[in-house]
Amino acid sequence: MFYTNSSSARINVSSFSTHFVFSIVPSSVNRGGHGLAFTLSPSTQFIGAEAGHFLGILNKSSDGNSSNHIFAVEFDTVNGFKEKSDSYGNHIGININSLFSNVSEPASYYASGSAKEDVNLESGNPIQAWIEYDGMKKVVHVTISPSSVSKPSQPLISFPIDLSDYLLQNMYVGFSAATGNKSSFHYILGWSFRMNGAADALNLSLLPITPKERSSSSFKPQIKAILAALSVVFIFFFAALFLVVKYRRKMEFERLEDWELDCPHRFSYKDLHAATKGFKESELLGVGGFGAVYKGVLPTTGAEIAVKKISNNSIQGMREFAAEIESLGRLRHKNLVNLQGWCKRKNELLLIYDYVPNGSLSSLLSNPKTEFVICWEQRFNILKGIAAGLLYLHEEWEQVVIHRDVKSSNVLIDADMNGRLGDFGLARLYDHGENPHTTTVVGTIGYIAPELAQTGKASTSSDVFAYGVLLLEVVTGRGAVVHDPQNGHVTLVDWVIECLRMGRILDAADPKLNSVYDFEEMELILGLGLLCSRPKSEARPTMRQVTRYLNGDDLLPVLDSNQPSFLATTIKNSGDRFSLKDLGFLHYFLGVEVVPTRFGIFLSQHKYVRDLLASTNMSGAKDVSTSFSTSTSFQLVDGTAPMDSFDFRRVIGSLQYLSLTRPDISFAVKKFS
């Protein structure tokens, strides 16, 4: 509002002009009041100001102080006030730092020539006022008139004064009014203000209608005292209640101070509530084992987020989960769903993740409501991305992260159809070289590695097993557990094995692909899926080896069909004998009883055996024993009576997978000369 003279530190007040219309409506009881004032002040807060004749601007101690820096034009209706005030009511005055007017005039205007017409300020009728300060001539002009009269040519007051001596560089412009023993209602119906120029004229026809005279309640002093006392009691009660609630919220908010300091960005619950539209059901993306996930849009940045609400009544459980967040919040990889931050409210923990628009891989693979089909190229790229993410977790980050819940529903697909592994609620962290601890067996049926179910020890290899199931799931379009018409529910791994055993491995491909895929890549993924899902953890590849297979840097291990035994990858040759190892796994895998005999190995009759024999035109056999010679022939004997030989390759065509995926199956075989 002001500027500093370039040759002096003195403040020079700019010219200003204002035009406003006001109305003072007295109450029906205790008619009269103390009026209102147009003010220039250094603050919007008049600290310590009193009501009544002080007009809400000053008080007894501050009245007249040069440090007030207040300029006011008062429209005063008070009568008979004696304390340094003006001697008559219904007047207009210019005040500098005081309630005592430097100059004042009865409220009136020049109608024509020098004739004055009185104006009753508390008539309730609209009154126009013009206040103008000429910064060059150092003079203030004040003019009033009824709303029905145009601006008079002669001001009511012209007061020479240099406001630079009283005002500061920055001032606030406004109005103040007050009531006391006498009461009125004060209205500003229209107002314009301009620096260094004439204020805009007001269109009086557009101004609101002045409210009619209002009645004021007149309670007896006793009733007023009771109401005042009750008000004080209620104020103290609600203030105490507010402080107690605020303290409890603060204690709840700061309960996890130790880990909160190192966690990623903390979001306010207010922002998350607004982002998710109050966690509205229409924003619900899904519900998992740890809570519901909502889509949100941050009101401050417009960024899309996913908010997971985790309810946990156990504070210790929340502390353990928060400890994981402290580390997992620092994970950053393009194929992981990154944790942006968190929020805690009572017993709820809210986790904020990147929003991934295309949802989960499982919904895209099996959703019957959509006609969209992920093409082979996209599936292959997704699997490579998840492999890269797991490699980062297992080997490339500062600690070893075991995800423990790798599955298609935890793989989210972004806008570019890239796979991103999410949901680290079950993840465990270890230092490199440290052995995993025994924990409660968690995970999803069909993805749990055998050793995890037996020992409870999750490892990077158990993640590899789950990734192998994921490979088969993406290839086949089926879930980790498959319904088989003959055998009921079987794991996807065993279902693919059965397809391979029956010589129809490509029948496992997702029919939605309509045979549109790269056959070499299809064979690679099927073989790699079975390789990763071997029962023995030490027989599985690492994620680094997996990525090399997927990138074509290494070839999958392939058996030589001319080797004498295609079912034994753990055979130890000692002279003319082979060793027997882990025969129990043969029963686990084939349901076959294995008994060493002088003829070799005795296989009890079983459905899988019958199917294998049927595929080699030997369905008439009952109990059989098998022998392997150094040639490529397979000798079938019943008891001690040998039968005709036939080409062993036909059996191997159905069983060659076993040497890759089931190293646990070993045969004790006597080598015939």
Features:
alpha+beta, Phosphorylase Kinase, domain 1, elongated, single chain, 673 residues, Jelly Rolls, 25% helix, Transferase(Phosphotransferase), domain 1, 14 helices
Q: What this model shows, in words?
A:
This protein is α+β, with helices and mostly antiparallel strands and 673 residues long. The chain folds into four domains: 2-206, Jelly Rolls (Sandwich), CATH 2.60.120.200; 257-354, Phosphorylase Kinase, domain 1 (2-Layer Sandwich), CATH 3.30.200.20; 361-551, Transferase(Phosphotransferase), domain 1, CATH 1.10.510.10; 573-661, no CATH class. The protein is 25% helix and 25% strand. The protein is built from 14 helices and 34 strands. A six-stranded mixed beta sheet has the order 15-19-20-18-17-16, with helices on both faces. Helix 6 (376-396) runs antiparallel to helix 11 and helix 8 (460-476) runs antiparallel to helix 10. The longest helix is centred in the middle third of the chain and has 33 residues, at 221-253. The protein is elongated. Residues 80-85 and 559-673 have low confidence and may be disordered.
